[in-house]
Specification:
865 residues, alpha/beta, seven-stranded mixed β-sheet, 25 strands, 40% helix, 15% strand, pyridoxal phosphate binding, methionine S-methyltransferase activity, Met_S-MeTrfase, methyltransferase
């Protein structure tokens, strides 16, 4: 245009151009408003926070379309003036007629200047052709950005490579309270996605920032001096309650009738009350008795039944003062019960919170060790189904055990859900003036007698033996090669889909339905048959779904068979809930894969077997099962009527596939003949792994056995992904299933990066005295510290003779590198290294491995060992 239009252009020439303009890449282009839209977005970048934009707008697209152009970009608008002007006779509006023909949209014209009722483009066109004159509205709008600093951040993010998301942007809100909640979160999310190229790992107990905000809120608004180490985060209140009950496994628990809806059905129907007070009970089904919420009735039940655990809320009239809470603390202490008090309905995320008796008590007294506070956060203005819960305990042992329980049974809580509520807490803390008065001294908690129930035997032994997340120390950060996730950069297409899922409004159910996309994915990837008999169940994490399957196995009185060299988290989780497990022997020379003959020998000795198979890529070894491998294994399982759980959650990133044949499970299953109806195949999967969306998890489980489906649903506390996450993955799956070139290239690059990392790690380890088992896919490999076994190490006063178990601690103490030991892999003297780290962290990890060799082997040579 700059070449066409010169300073000497005549008025007639400029007028002839006034009806036309190049497309600007905005959704408003279809209404001829693309240039206005571009001006608005460029204006957002330069305008001062309290500045005002004034636009005169032709009204042909319709008043609603014109006003929405501003409102969906976060503007408050005022119409200053309006008139009608004649439509130029030489303007061809047939294009507008065509738009109306192919859509429901109607443009706005008027007959002459005196008509008050608008007519559509088709009517106006016919009227003009018959000699009539038409006009359209001309309005002047005053536009001011609401929450300008946050809106500027949102548009800065969109300009930085995410322009395609702007068509979905909707910052129009009828309710200011909704805008005040959502816009700051979108600004935060934009900053988070921009700054974190690879989604950071947070402790399973909850994001440290979120726990800090919860503790800060309690201190600022309720004068309770908590720290992040008093707060454990859960996906939901229901998950928190069930996990707590599984941790203690009481013979008898009394639970508020309003809080039992998501507990296992078996707990609510068990009648095994006799002999319940024996602390050494067999840890079978917990018996739950429903109780009224009114404190005097509940106290009478506690006094008579003497339960080991009590979970209850507070009636509204009793929640105002601390008297009812103190009475519950007293009676549970007297009978030796653990108390979990739920304050979800009474915690207000407000700058003017009402009186809360439980929090009032905590402001003056330390929480006794036998009590904990539960709170489910669901009171937000935007998403009724977005939940995060937290538990508060001032007992270090209980806090640690709850943190480890969430790590074993759930994995972690959705980071974005924590970020959402974290923004609410942050806004409240920013509003609050810091209290300069010293914190009042709290009375210490009473000493609780030893008769209070401790952790269950299975939980205690598992918590003692399992390997858990190691947080950063105050001095230095930990390099994690011990985690089941990728830290490679998240592609912009993933971040765009995530952001779009939140900036949109009125998303329909069909847009969040990932079922058909998952069926297409598993058919293309594994040849898994999709039929009307199958049911797809979604979970926040694959681990949460797996643990529900373990409970189904227990309910079936089955035995869960793991191959030697399985995922250590999964094995520990099964032991935590006291499942009966058995190990299938494997060998190094076959890549620690299950061999059909060995499987048959094992199944001979087991009744009601459940066989766990990780594949095609085996976690943690990185070996691959071929199509013929899985067909032979399924044939053996069918012969013995075993239930098979195929875990594909670490598959899809195979990088060494020479001679490997892709699975065709449909053909395998059709070739298998089983006379035993118990034989079935459940397919477990995780979408983030092969879609390169690390840190944004969505697990799925496909079941084709109706009896197993019914049993699974009898454990209803499953933490499920939020609709925004399902929207995100539906978009990504659509791209993958349609073989989108850009996403396909990204996945190929991802695989090539992993292959290079595996090669680099293998060479480094071998040069440092480790024997490496080759990896052909996934994100980890196994290695044996051959040169280190039996050597002695001294680090900061800590001394040990190295073996496959304590070498983990030795490396961590000496270098800050964290790996999984042989106690995690289950294979004697073999450790696990996860190599999908951010590039600088990976290089640091290689340096740590070399430094450890210098520390141990050189010292050993100097000492003549």
């Amino acid at each position: 245009m700059s070449k066409i239009v010169t300073e000497n252009s005549s008025e007639e020439f400029l007028y002839s151009l006034s009806n036309y303009c190049a497309l600007q890449g905005f959704v408003e282009d279809q209404f001829g408003l693309g240039l206005i839209a571009r001006a608005v977005e460029e204006g957002i970048d330069v305008i001062k926070p309290m500045g005002i934009m004034v636009f005169n707008m032709g009204g042909r697209p319709g008043q609603g379309v014109c006003e929405r152009l501003f409102r969906r970009r976060g503007f408050r608008i005022t119409k200053l003036w309006q008139t009608k002007i004649m439509q130029a006779a030489d303007t061809d509006i047939s294009a507008l007629v065509e738009i109306e023909k192919n859509s429901r949209h109607r443009f706005e014209f008027f007959m002459d200047l005196v008509g008050d009722q608008p007519v559509c483009a088709r009517t106006a066109w016919a009227y003009m052709k018959s000699g009539g004159r038409i006009s359209h509205a001309l309005s002047v709008y005053s536009c001011q950005i609401r929450q300008p600093n946050q809106v500027k951040k949102i548009f800065e993010f969109l300009r930085d490579g995410f322009h395609e998301v702007s068509s979905s942007l909707d910052l129009s809100f009828d309710d200011d309270s909704v805008a005040d909640e959502k816009i700051p979160f979108l600004a935060y999310l934009a900053s988070f996605l921009k700054e974190n190229k690879s989604n950071p790992w947070e402790p399973p107990a909850g994001c440290l920032n979120f726990r800090n905000l919860v503790a800060g809120f309690m201190k600022s608004y309720h004068h309770i001096p908590l720290t992040p180490d008093n707060v454990v985060v859960f996906p939901s209140r229901a998950v928190a309650i069930e996990n707590a009950l599984r941790l203690f496994s009481p013979a008898l628990a009394i639970v508020d009738e309003h809080l039992t809806r998501h507990l296992p059905k078996q707990w609510l129907t068990s009648l095994a009350i006799e002999g319940r007070v024996d602390c050494n009970h067999s840890e079978e089904t917990v018996t739950v008795i429903e109780a009224p919420r009114q404190s005097d009735l509940l106290i009478e039940l506690i006094r008579k039944l003497k339960p080991q655990v009590v979970v209850t809320g507070m009636a509204q009239f009793e929640a105002i003062t601390s008297a009812a809470f103190e009475n519950l603390l007293s009676i549970t202490k007297d009978v030796g019960s653990r108390l979990f008090i739920d304050i979800s309905e009474h915690l207000e995320l407000s700058s003017l919170p009402s009186s809360n008796g439980v929090l009032k008590y905590l402001a003056g007294k330390t929480l006794p060790s036998h009590a904990a506070i539960l709170c489910g956060l669901v009171k937000n203005q935007v998403y009724s189904d977005l939940e995060v819960a937290f538990a508060i305990s001032e007992d270090a042992d209980v806090y640690r055990a709850l943190s480890q329980t969430i790590e074993l049974l759930e994995g972690h809580t959705s980071q974005i859900s924590q970020h959402y509520y974290g923004c609410l807490f942050h806004e409240l803390l920013a509003f609050q003036i810091a209290d300069r008065h010293p914190q009042q001294e709290r009375q210490p908690a009473e000493v609780i007698s030893q008769k209070v129930i401790g952790f269950s035997n299975s939980a205690m032994s598992t918590l003692k033996e399992a390997e858990f997340f190691v947080p950063d120390s105050k001095e230095s950060g930990v390099i994690h090669m011990d985690l089941d996730r990728s830290f490679l950069p998240v592609p912009s297409v993933v971040n765009a889909s995530i952001f779009e899922s939140f900036v949109r409004q009125n998303i329909t159910d069909s847009e969040t339905d990932v079922g058909s996309s998952i069926q297409q994915l598993v058919k293309d990837s594994y040849g898994f048959p999709g039929d009307g008999c199958s049911e797809i169940i979604y979970g926040n994490t694959c681990l949460a779904l797996f643990n529900k399957l373990v409970l189904c196995c227990i309910q079936d009185q089955g035995t869960l068979l793991f191959p030697l060299g399985a995922n250590g988290h999964y094995v520990s989780a099964a032991k935590f809930v006291n499942a009966k497990t058995l190990t299938i022997p494997t060998k190094l020379d076959s890549g620690f894969k299950i061999e059909p003959r060995v499987l048959a020998d094992t199944l001979e000795k087991v009744s009601r077997p459940w066989v766990y198979i990780s594949g095609p890529t085996i976690n943690p070894t990185g070996s691959l099962y071929s199509d013929s491998d899985i067909q032979e294994l399924l044939s053996v399982c069918a012969k013995y009527g075993a239930r098979v759980v195929i875990d594909t959650s670490f598959s899809g990133l195979e990088f060494q596939i020479d001679g490997w044949k892709r699975w065709n499970l449909e053909r395998c299953l059709s070739a298998v003949n089983s006379a035993k109806p118990s034989f079935s195949v459940a397919l477990l999967g995780e979408l983030s792994f092969e879609l390169t969306a690390a840190g944004h998890d969505l697990g799925f489980l496909i079941l084709n056995d109706s009896a197993l489906v019914d049993t699974f649903h009898s454990f209803p506390s499953l933490s499920r992904p939020h609709s925004t996450l399902k929207y995100t993955f539906r978009k990504l799956l659509g791209l993958k299933n349609q073989k989108d070139e850009h996403l396909s290239n990204l996945i190929v690059e991802h695989k090539e990066t992993l292959k290079n990392r595996a090669d680099h790690l293998t060479k480094t380890l071998e040069s440092c005295g480790w024997d490496v088992a080759a990896s052909r896919g996934g994100i980890s490999l196994l290695a044996k510290p051959t040169a280190y076994l039996g050597k002695t190490i001294k680090v900061d006063g800590w001394e040990a003779k190295l073996d496959g178990c304590n070498i983990k601690e030795a490396i961590q103490r000496a270098t800050g590198l964290c790996i999984n030991s042989s106690s995690w892999t289950g294979i004697a003297d073999h450790c696990r290294f996860s190599f999908a780290l951010e590039s600088s962290e990976f290089e640091r990890a290689m340096g740590c491995i070399t430094r450890f060799k210098d520390l141990v082997l050189r010292n050993a040579q100097m000492n003549g060992n």
